[in-house]
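Quick one: sequence plus NAP SMILES, need structure tokens.
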Amino acid sequence: MQEIIITGASRGFGRHVAIQLAGPGRHLHLINRSKPDATASEIRDRGGDVSTWSIDLTLTERLEDSFLPVLDSVKSRNPEAIGLINNAGTIEPVGPLGKYETSGYRKHLELNYVAPALLTHLFVKHFQQLPITKRILFVGSGASRRPIHGWSHYCSSKAAIDMLAKTVALEQDAQEYPFETAVFNPGRIETDMQEALRDKSKEDFPLVDDFVASATDGRNLPPEQVAEKMVRIFLSDTFPHGEIVGR
Ligand SMILES: NC(=O)c1ccc[n+]([C@@H]2O[C@H](COP(=O)([O-])OP(=O)(O)OC[C@H]3O[C@@H](n4cnc5c(N)ncnc54)[C@H](OP(=O)(O)O)[C@@H]3O)[C@@H](O)[C@H]2O)c1
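Reply:
Sure thing.
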């Protein structure tokens, strides 16, 4: 059995990634705050196995306790391959640093950086000695490479993800049974996140008109189309270890 953990699979991009990964011989572990019943039933319809875990990934002080049962569940099936897809993320709060509540920025950093960093740490710690295929894929963003007005925490947390993935890749090269790690940058995908961006004021987000335009001029791709590409990369014999790849 292949055991794959994916965060943020209740809706948006992660939901389509989970559905397209589903199939016989594959057990998916979905981590979200809500119960992703619709995603889970589509996975079963495709002949896959699924477990759902209600975890608020912003509560990182408790993350080790809440993630251990997921790791134990993966281990209990004697997997022939394992994977972790760090997908859950947020763009909020959008607006210049200094403007909104501290708690909003803190939650942003917990979800976009602290949680994936700790989940990755625990996954590696638990399974380093398993002599099987082991992959970790982070969902990144082109925003990691250029500053965007109103996105201070998003650009910087995604830049941190790029560097985390590259550093872990370097460390894993020295291991007897290494994990492979990479970042996938999906580009603009038509999800709730894009919808929220279109509602922002120009003061908070001067690029808002461009994001309104990209909803209809073909630049925002449907999540299922981009998910297909990412799933192909995730399952490929030539996983892009240590790389940041785009759609
Ligand atoms: N949309 C784009 O154009 C775009 C572009 C580049 C990169 N990305 C990246 O792609 C990834 C997915 O984005 P998306 O557009 O699909 O976002 P989305 O539609 O807002 O979906 C976010 C997912 O994350 C989960 N989530 C949110 N807060 C959570 C929390 N505190 N704990 C656990 N799960 C949580 C949500 O489930 P619950 O609400 O049930 O918890 C949901 O399944 C993100 O990393 C994003 O940065 C998106």
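The domain at 2-189+223-246 is CATH 3.40.50.720 (Rossmann fold). The CA atoms of residues 222 and 245 lie 18 Å apart.
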